[in-house]
Design goal:
DUF6503, 13-stranded antiparallel sheet, 2 domains, signal, alpha+beta, Outer membrane lipoprotein-sorting protein, globular
Length: 238
């Protein structure tokens, strides 16, 4: 009996299940990997993201984020059109092909300050992960799941948000050895808060870029959860 118990313990240890790990520990290890010097809270840098999608011209976005100064700007160029959205301590400014727009001309160009805020939240969230999972209104599940995605095993954290923040359910996939974030995935919910299995998208992360001392995903390939349909790729250019 003693031999059998020792053998079972050895098998469990080899398979990686000898020690339980909490969701908070996974998140801490992931943040230590991506932001070892805690630079995100003082992030101040500019980087470029090139977006490619099937049957559409590429879009090049120059993004500036200065968290201490409460400043955000994104200048996106697609074909012959360049738009700029800037939020400086909450003050919104917009440009179209270099020309500053008033509220009337902005509306004619389908540009709004709400969209500026949307871009700020979008880019700050995605490029601030996994550190942004510490933000207020973020609800981290107590359970760490082990999932196999496209033939590779991951530690997976489930995240929901307070109603004021968002209704989607997110899953974050981490390398079980390095704790690097390699995939994230989200699902829409119905009126009862239940996940819609055919909704949402998953994003495969590959390569890394060092921006402000933070290891950010360099390439993000987007797919629909339904039928694995490819949507496009964002490539971070330092």
């Amino acid at each position: 009996m003693k031999f059998i118990l020792m053998l079972m313990a050895l098998v469990i240890s080899i398979s990686g299940y000898s020690q339980d790990i909490t969701s908070q520990e996974v998140l801490k290890n992931a943040i230590d990997y991506h932001d070892p010097n805690n630079n995100w809270s003082q992030f101040n840098n500019t980087f470029t993201v090139v977006m490619t999608t099937p049957k559409s011209p590429k879009r090049t976005s120059v993004i500036s984020i200065n968290l201490p100064a409460e400043y955000f700007s994104v200048t996106a160029t697609k074909d012959t059109v360049t738009t700029t959205y800037t939020l400086d301590k909450g003050q919104c400014k917009m440009r179209y092909n270099g020309q500053v727009l008033d509220s009337i001309s902005a509306k004619e160009k389908n540009m709004t300050c709400d969209r500026a805020t949307l871009y700020k939240n979008y880019y700050s969230y995605l490029y601030g992960l996994p550190m942004k999972l510490k933000d207020p209104g973020t609800n981290l599940s107590d359970t760490v799941e082990r999932k196999t995605f496209k033939g590779k095993e991951y530690l997976v954290l489930k995240v929901t948000y307070d109603e004021a923040v968002g209704s989607d359910v997110w899953y974050f996939y981490f390398n079980p050895e390095t704790f690097a974030m390699e995939i994230y995935q989200f699902f829409k919910t119905d009126e009862h808060g239940k996940e819609k299995p055919d909704s949402g998208e998953y994003i495969l992360l590959s390569e890394e870029a060092n921006v402000n001392g933070i290891k950010m995903p360099k390439v993000r390939a987007w797919y629909y959860n339904k039928a694995d349909k490819y949507l496009g790729t964002d490539t971070l250019v330092e």
